[in-house]
Design brief:
Mean pLDDT: 77
Structural class: alpha+beta
Shape: globular
CATH class: Mainly Beta
Oligomer: single chain
Distance between the termini: 35 Å
Number of helices: 2
Low-confidence stretches: 15-24, 62-68
Length: about 140
């Protein structure tokens, strides 16, 4: 269960980053990303939120905040893109996670879905998970 909690925290952050990472139509500013993780192996969905300041420079060059395509030891590979949307694949060998996702977005909202397979070290069991993220623009970034 502890592994699931750690994985959920990492994937919530990753979902917010990856879903917004390639969008050039999202408005720079403070965004809230809410992710709901579901799995046949979980009794109930788990939901978490993260706020993130998307700067103009990031909106103009989203790859600049992807750490060279490596987030938390995960390789993110961009797939097809169209105005207001894109797809990607993700591989996290250290965590035993692989999957694919798609996102759609506009200036004030975004939605994404990532379907993943998680290979547990205990017994070699594989678990299917789906993360759905909704993002919304909150306003200008908060001063620190």
């Amino acid at each position: 269960m502890k592994k699931r909690a750690i994985l959920f925290a990492a994937l919530t952050a990753l979902a917010g980053a990856s879903a917004s990472a390639w969008s050039q139509t999202m408005r720079p500013g403070e965004w809230q990303f809410t992710t709901t993780m579901t799995s046949p192996s979980m009794q109930q969905p788990q939901t978490g939120s993260v706020n993130r300041c998307i700067t103009k420079a990031e909106a103009d060059d989203p790859a600049s905040f992807m750490s060279g395509g490596n987030a938390g030891g995960c390789e993110i590979t961009r797939g097809a893109s169209s105005p207001g949307g894109h797809s990607w694949t993700i591989a996290c060998p250290k965590q035993g996670v692989s999957g694919a996702g798609k996102a759609s977005y506009g200036p004030d909202r975004m939605e994404s879905e990532i379907s993943m397979i998680v290979a547990l070290q205990e017994g070699g069991q594989k678990i299917q998970m789906t993360n759905r993220t909704q993002g919304r623009y909150l306003g200008p970034c908060k001063a620190k």
